[in-house]
Amino acid sequence: MKHQKDYTDEFREQIAKLKLSGKSNEELIKTYGISRTSIDTWTRMYKSTGSFREKDNMSELEKEVKVLREENRRLRMESDILKQAALIMARR
């Protein structure tokens, strides 16, 4: 299993700025040992919002889907609890 490295926001910003200033992915990969995907993701995030936090780079639709999924998870859990309680009460 691959371990994801933790990079500081300052490092991510530096890489994004280098990429935007014309450095190639190959140069950045060779110099810093980071993946092409990371370079492209950080550059996209830096250009769009200047933030490297996922929540800051979500569209309104993605934010809504995240909220609805959490609510769905909570409601399923509540439903399971109520079903178990009903089974327990039916046994009495």
Low-confidence stretches: none
Terminal-residue CA separation: 49 Å
Strand segment count: 0
The main pleated sheet reads as: none
Order of helices and strands: HHHH
- Specify the helix fraction band: over 70%
User: How many distinct domains?
Assistant: 2
Please, could you describe this protein's structure?
The protein has 2 domains: 1-57; 58-92. The mean pLDDT is 88. The protein starts with 8 loop residues before the first helix and ends with a helix. It has helices spanning 9-20, 25-32, 36-48, 60-91. The radius of gyration is 22 Å and the shape is elongated. It has 4 helices and no strands. The chain has 92 residues and is mainly alpha-helical.
Characteristic key phrases:
92 residues, mainly alpha, 2 domains, elongated
Put the structure in a nutshell:
The chain is mostly helical.
Topology diagram in text:
Blueprint: H1 9-20, H2 25-32, H3 36-48, H4 60-91
Helix pairs in contact: 1-3
